[in-house]
Predict the structure.
Amino acid sequence: MACGFRRSIASQLSRVLDLPPENLIKSISAIPISKKEEVADFQLSLDSLLEINNDHSRPDIQVQTKRLAEKLKCDTVVSEISTGPGTVNFKINRELLTKAVLQEVIKDGSKYGLKSELFSGLPQRRIVVEFSSPNVAKKFHVGHLRSTIIGNFIANLKEALGHQVTRINYLGDWGMQFGLLGTGFQLFGYEEKLQSNPLQHLFEVYVQVNKEAADDKKVAELAHEFFQRLELGDVQALSLWQRFRDLSIEEYVRIYKRLGIHFDEYSGESFYCEKSQEVLKLLDSKGLLQKTIKGAAVVDLSGNGDPSSICTVMRSDGTSLYATRDLAAAIDRMDKYNFDTMIYVTDKGQKKHFQQVFQMLKIMGYDWAERCQHVPFGVVKGMKTRRGDVTFLEDVLNEIRLRMLQNMASIKTTKELENPQETAEKIGLAALIIQDFRGLLLSDYQFSWDRVFQSRGDTGVFLQYTHARLHSLEETFGCGYLNDFNTACLQEPQSVSILQHLLRFDEVLYKSSQDLQPRHISSCSCGTQNTPNKRQSS
């Protein structure tokens, strides 16, 4: 596979450069595949070579490149050596490339790319990934979709690479909103509606009580009192809250099942009410806690009173806040999991919040705060169903299934299926996810149903079609036919292009594992669609 070729190239380079091969392997990268012309397979950047040598003199790069290329020789592995702008390029013997790649694919199967030397020497880690995190007692909002699918991608990738991954769903199950909801249900709630359609009814109650609280100070005071009762452990208030929480999780589990997503732990802000008081005591003992004129407790992260660096950790009535509970949760998870890395997947609007949480952990004396990482993502704009602006994730899932069923019905070649609705939902979900993963996670993007369901191009629909087509070929010719193949028949540009994509797959996995961006994998998976007959060639 690619790592074997890299090692061979690195061995020859090490003799010329007097450097260990291990120091060179990760500097030898796959060349981006061109649709216009056949390119070499690997390249060594002279810039990366200078970094290895700590050479900051910046000699004439192109002169150095040519000198290095002249010292290298073709062999049984490398059939051609050339130079580009600041790079030495290596073309692999085409018959060897075909044989080695296909044999590796057959041997490793679904593990192909994961055994690469790019990953050797990387220690196996304990990784916690917190993602999705919907708000209890509310229907699953579409705004949580990106956190859910991105977090699941990161957890799957880390798990595939052999790390021990814990998936945590940290529910928004505490805070003043439950004061409002508890009061609202006591004023406007109906037991029959709660039993028949719990989250829809709670959503309606929440909207109504918010409106009332804005107009009536007495309602706002009742909500405040209800939340205080919750924090003090009032049995009646906690019983109602627990019921809302249980009904919510039941609904969420059903939606996660449709998405094919699972969690190892359902946690929540409520778990850390008492522990957040311990956090406040620790902050106070270290002289970090300051009281405002109104009685709230804050931490000045700048040390000089900069308003933008002040984080409120306790309300004037003594109740905890989101930041305090996040601090308590991080400390608890370190005690429980002893993680090497903890990854939070939320929208970019929470960037400052996590910066402050990590900074507070550090000044509290927790050096492991450096192991905490926030993966922010941008906003999806213009997601609408045919009925108008979308609010709830289930509406999106239903719309996906409906549109895909209509698409399938309009295509003459669609086969009769045992469960067309299930197939339509799976293809539609793949289409939605690939659309989401195409760009940088941090970027906002304009949603388009037409683009999601395009059957050609870098789309999930085309990816699923290709997958189904390959399975059909496998069934037709039998799984074992690839054990005996004629490499001479796979030398035309279309076949070589597919082999090059397979050759660089380990590098794609490596890039995604480093920057946690799924676009490397999604573009690699969908990136060969313009080469006709590629499925037959492979």
